[in-house]
Specification:
It is a single chain. With about 280 residues, the chain is mostly helical. The chain contains 11 helices and 2 strands; from the N terminus they run ααββααααααααα. It has a two-stranded antiparallel sheet with strand order 1-2. A hairpin with a 4-residue loop joins strand 1 and strand 2. The protein is globular and about 70 Å long. The model has no long low-confidence stretch (mean pLDDT about 85).
Length: about 280
């Protein structure tokens, strides 16, 4: 009976996984098929022209890159410090458990709520206006729960004997964390960080109210100005443009570029994990 139950469970799991993978392959294949014709050097290195029916997506690419860098600058240091404190220094009492539960619940909050919170706090409360900086701070808040959770999981996987060995030879707790724990946990920490940033790069809702614009003719951009981003650019071309059929190839090309960016970030994360795992072995 137990064997039959196990077979049913595995069969259901494989069936559901197969359905998801099938539709994922169909969607990605369709995007590659219809978007590859739009890809060219001019498409990724020029400004949009003629009401965004022609030209490239350079401002959207640069806006996405700058936004991701600001998000990493805001969220990574604070997230790592929080995770280190919770795992290495905080007592295992009701307050610590409450903080952990709150962080995990924050990870499940819809991204549009973070966008409204960023609008109230950064755009209106701190008078930063709709800008690249406001959007970066908002995405930083969205990324914090994921970075804290993945970092704490990576720290928890380091054996306690590693810490005890460092303390046994006279190292302080800070020195044992700096020299022994963090190097051992760095593959998991970096993997979680890169995957979180790749997810943030594809978000639209949090930047909708905080800084993204339909069209900017300045590819460099400034921190206190509005900016273009690939996810929002794709959304506008697909649903809001006055000539949707005319810009359809550009929309598929934009989707393909965004998929390539996320794929490269994810590949980098897996490369880091595999490299350090081999070194540990």
């Amino acid at each position: 009976m137990r064997k039959l139950t196990s077979i049913i469970e595995w069969g259901s799991l494989l069936f559901c996984t197969g359905i998801v993978c099938f539709f994922l392959i169909v969607i990605i294949g369709d995007i590659i098929n219809k978007g590859s014709s739009a890809l060219s050097w001019a498409f990724v290195s020029t400004l949009p022209t003629d009401g965004m029916t022609k030209g490239g997506i350079l401002p959207a690419i640069m806006g996405t890159v700058l936004l991701t860098l600001i998000t990493a600058t805001v969220s990574a240091p604070f997230g790592l410090c929080c995770a280190i404190y919770l795992n290495e220094y905080a007592s295992n009492n009701w307050l610590t458990r409450l903080i952990r539960a709150s962080i995990r619940n924050l990870a499940g909050v819809p991204s549009i709520i973070y966008g409204l919170f960023g609008l109230a706090l950064f755009v209106q409360g701190l008078h930063m206006g709709t800008s690249l900086l406001s959007a970066g701070f908002t995405l930083g808040l969205l990324s914090l729960p994921y970075i804290i959770t993945t970092t704490e999981e990576a720290l928890r996987r380091v054996p306690a004997s590693t810490r005890e060995a460092a303390l046994g030879v006279g190292a302080t707790q800070y020195e044992s964390i700096r020299d022994m724990v963090l190097p051992s946990a760095s593959p998991g920490i970096l993997t979680g960080l890169v995957l979180t940033l790749s997810r943030a790069a594809g978000e639209t809702a949090p930047i909708l109210f905080t800084g993204v614009a339909f069209y900017i003719n300045n590819p460099t951009g400034f921190l206190n100005q509005e900016f273009m981003a690939l996810p929002y650019h794709l959304y506008m071309l697909s649903t809001q443009h006055q000539s949707i059929e005319e810009v359809r190839p550009l929309a598929y090309g934009t989707a393909l570029v965004l998929i390539i960016v996320v794929f490269l970030l994810n590949s980098f994360a897996f490369y880091i994990r595999n490299k350090y795992s081999k070194n540990e072995g």
